[in-house]
């Protein structure tokens, strides 16, 4: 029995703006085992990003608890990495120093941080750009750099918010391969938020379907074929995508062939 | 190649200025505007005598720029990042910013005497306001996502200030500094010409009082060169510190 890496129980989250109060998440409960890759999918505005920010420790739940590695979260945790769609790179730092940023913030000596960052850049295949600035990188390379920053930190939890949606189709496919490859070699816990059905099916061993306003879990779907680089070309994969699409299109109660999660 | 182009540009600009000056001098035909060669010859001759004045003027302006820029940057970034400070700071800033600080020359002369103090106080204030407004705007325009991504790495407020806020505001602060150079030299001239017996401003007005127009122009050339020199120093420092930004041509 593997241990639980992330545990959200009965979490609700309210945003207050001016006079309006928005319930972003309502009684949201989710457990992710250590080393498990999950994908969260849903329409925009369904609170997917809020879930990530809660796990990252950047938001506090209005009620309910968030535990990471068995401990209640009080703020950002050093071995949890958050990777965003717009990469989160600092334009004024070189590629190498961007990769080393997390370590520098943790007060590691610069020389050592740079050495570890260099290894991380090699892992994601952009070590020859170490001395460039982010504006000289393509979108795909920028996202590789964001991953390198997480790798340098030796992260055990990888949170990704639409990491590939700004990329063109070919680059996206390459990065999907890299993500699967990295996960297989480093076996971190992964929570991927996406609105792409293919991406969810490719990168989530469990796929969490969310309903919008307030964000709730509608269904959790097992996707055991995930993790194989050739999964994309199998009929299971296409069936999975078709089923997800039908579930997402059908706003009512989901198909009865998949296990319902009662809220 | 780029360096060569720059130098060529400076040479061309100087030639155009001198030609325009010569033409204007011929057209006006008044001893108050001597021909450039007369003024330049006098500049060469008066330079040894002007050096102490130049040093004093340079000292006043550099000290003021450092005081004004450092304090303006710190306060501007703080106001721009702190909601509470902005609530109090922003209205205050916008009331005080448009007041022409130069009108306080008489007050400062009475309070601070005739030495370096009134010039430094006034020029620092002018630069301070320029910088504080710019730094505040720069701090406000920082992408929240960027801050969020750095915070998720466990960054404290100090880390965010050091790795995100300060470097991202640096290009705008240099722009503010470059814009305020001209104002700073102008304010310096006014203060030095009104009171005291030191600085290039005094030198110019003193020659003017003696109806020695050639020497007056030697002083004007010195003051112009002071401005150009400061501008170039700022460019040089900016190129060292802001290597990441695309260069506007």
Short account of what is shown:
Chain A has 263 residues and is an alpha/beta fold. Chain A has 7 helices and 10 strands.
Structure report:
The complex is a heterodimer of chains A (263) and B (249). Chain A is an alpha/beta fold. Chain A has 2 domains: 1-79 and 167-263, 3-Layer(aba) Sandwich (Rossmann fold); 80-155, no CATH class. Chain A has 7 helices and 10 strands. Chain A has a 6-stranded mixed beta sheet with strand order 6-7-8-3-9-10, sandwiched between helices. In chain A, strand 7 (157-161), helix 5 (169-186) and strand 8 (189-194) form a beta-alpha-beta unit. The longest helix of chain A is centred in the C-terminal third of the chain and has 18 residues, at 169-186. Chain B folds into 2 domains: 1-30; 31-241, Orthogonal Bundle (MetI-like fold). Chain B contains 9 helices and no strands. The relative contact order of chain B is 0.13. Chains A and B meet through strand 6 and helix 2 of A and helix 6 and helix 7 of B.
